[in-house]
Amino acid sequence: MKIVTACTMDCGDACSLLVDTERRTVRGNPKHPFTKGFCCKKGARYFRRLDSDERVVEPLVRRGEGFEPTDWDTALGLIADRLDAARRVPESILHVHGHGYRGILGTASTNFFERLGASTVYGCVCDDTGIEACLRDFGVLNHNDPEDILNSDRVVNWGRDMTRCSVHQLALLKQARKHGTEVLSISPGGDGTPEFSDVNVVIRPGTDRFLAAAVLKLFLEAGDLNPWVLTRTANWPALRGLVDGLKFRDLCAACDVPAEDAEMVYEWYAERGNTATVVGWGLQRHRFGGENVRFINAVAMVSGNIGVRGGGAYFNISSGRNLGSWAHLIEGGETPATRRRLLLQDLGAELRRADPPVDFVWIDGHNVVNQVPDGLAVAEALAAPFTVVVDGFLNDTALCADVILPPALMFERRDVLGSYVHNYVNLCDRALPPRGLARPDFDILADLGSRLREPVRLPDEETCLREGLKASAVSFDELLENGFARVNHPFVAFENLVFGHLDGLYRFPEALHPEPAPDPDFPLQLLTVVSGESLHSQIPEADQRGVPTVRIGRTNPALGVLDPQGDVYLVTDLGAMQVRVEVEDGLHPRAVLMRRGGWMKYGQGANAIIHPSVTDMAFGTAYYSQACRLENRQP
Fold this sequence. Notes:
It contains 19 helices and 25 strands. It is of the alpha/beta class. A 6-stranded mixed β-sheet has the order 5-4-16-15-14-6, with helices on one face. Strands 21-23-22-25-20-24 form a 6-stranded mixed β-sheet, with no helix packed on it. Strands 10-9-8-11-12 form a 5-stranded parallel β-sheet, sandwiched between helices. Strand 11, helix 13 and strand 12 form a beta-alpha-beta unit. Helix 3 packs across helix 17 (441-451).
């Protein structure tokens, strides 16, 4: 039987899918205007995850160093007792929710624990830095329709590896190239950009703002500026004064880009026709990630490529902008005016110094021990409070739990989801029953809430879905019939150069911060980049055997003293892990590339040796600013 449903993984493509429950196969929905009948390998192989022997399909309770199966009544009764006790001091409850589960119903745990007045986290391990940069520039988070890239004469791609993170954006780019669109990609290398690019420029990791400033410098020197565009900005004199005081050669040196390559990037923006700008999601994972994004946006604006067909600056949109809240329909509890917040990137230290101390932790949709920096410190800190983890696998976070609750996974539950790339809302319909004793997250919380001494009662699922769709005027009945619906947004963002700030004007950055000098003890830069095989840490345990691989370029200075065939360790100021080294062409000399998501319990998790640090905007995580070295040593 074929069921129309949709992918709920943390991916902007948000594919509409056809699931054959008898053959246990998955393919893209050919009727969906964006999915167009195909999906990535992560979605196509999802039955491997559903049917895995490694999956947890019954509640587990800690007994000593291990876990024992139990029934739902016992597990939820134990949790309710602990939660009732903790409610005397609401701040002693901590809720940690991630994007491993998204959708209208996916907000259930957030709404539930908000009603309890629980502590929560702030900071982001994903895209908040880039989002904040775009909000400061444009006043609102928006970009042209993704299909508008078919109208572009040229595309400048600042670091997005579409071969691994967005197969549908890649397909659009390939289609555009067949009709004459040219593509220039800028990155430290080691990615799939040569597959879809006419020209590649290698840049020092994290220094894109200097290349963008060099391009702005050339626009100023050429006097090639549209006066009307500049009248639609609030602070052009400030940016002009900043760039006037910079030297072109110094900017090129700061990003390790030859002057002729910087001039070429300028020419791509200055030539007639429209140039689209794609901003990679890794640029914001540096210390000055927000500044990187803002200077790239500034190039798109100054060159006259904002508010026009075939132009635009693509970072992302909010996957929730077409969906509303149903939190006001909850009965019981009371949402406080303020709640305690702990910094996510430094969660281990935050838990240790919390006052009042955290006594109860609920974690769902987030392998937080694996995904945040200094994961070992987080694991140690979670040993003190009573910890509940809602997860289907015994990953690094689940191993820290006192109780593990098995959730229904994608295809086993119903929800409605938006995208942070396109403007369709998808029905993620239930295609098969949950495996074993697994239950939907919403159902788990509804049951738990009813067991509390002072109950917190959730509405029924359909009521929540219909309420959440009111924000976009999408009909739930239409979703049931078609599986998806388009929400109307302008095809071209910021047409007539009207922006989201109160005065309608664009804002330029007014400062350019220098890159910190390299540490001679740790002269290289660790980039834990996206994988094409799995999403973040959703990696089968069988695929995590042996020593993890890092990739370096042929001009990497470590090769002067390193024997890649010997025992090699990746070393940071926080620790060391054994790795296997592969050498390849096209990588910047400072870059050490490693695919993200490996589990610490198998020696695969790089976040165990990444120091907690924040970016310049919105408390993002500066993963890619981690300095490191490679050395031979005995295991």
